[in-house]
Amino acid sequence: MVSGSGFLKKQKDTVHLHISANDGVPIYLQIVNQLKYLVAAGRLAPGEELPPIRVLAERLLINPNTVARAYRELEQAGVVTKRRTAGTYVSDAASPLARRERLKILTERIDALLAEAGQLNVGIEEVLQLVRQRADAMQPRPEEK
Fold first, then answer.
1. Whole-model pTM?
2. Which residue, of 64, 86, 136, 140, has the greatest Cβ tally within 10 A?
3. Strands 80-83 and 14-20
4. Any idea what the Cα angle at residue 74 is, between residues 70 and 78, rounded to 5°?
């Protein structure tokens, strides 16, 4: 069973990646999705270097070919660029796609939620009610004086 987490060292903080063999999503896609999310959310900035393939593979306890595949997918999507013998960097072109990418990520998560709700025989109105309840619960409460 493969399960691991790794981190991307940044100048100011550390960004974590988590993978799980139990997720039902191929490991390379978990890496792709998480890195896309981090770029879209601005946690990885344009021009920022990603760890070398072997380093990230060691941190995540996975095969380097899996990381290489994820990096290739990210490069094809325009999220990262490879510089020969100089590493893999977040693309400068990734930032204009940030909002569209965030919406795509949310759409995929909503699709998964709706599929699971259907399997559990929970209707859309009930799901929406739960979403509203959770949103309300997550709102910061005004300080009591």
1. 0.62
2. 64
3. unpaired
4. 170
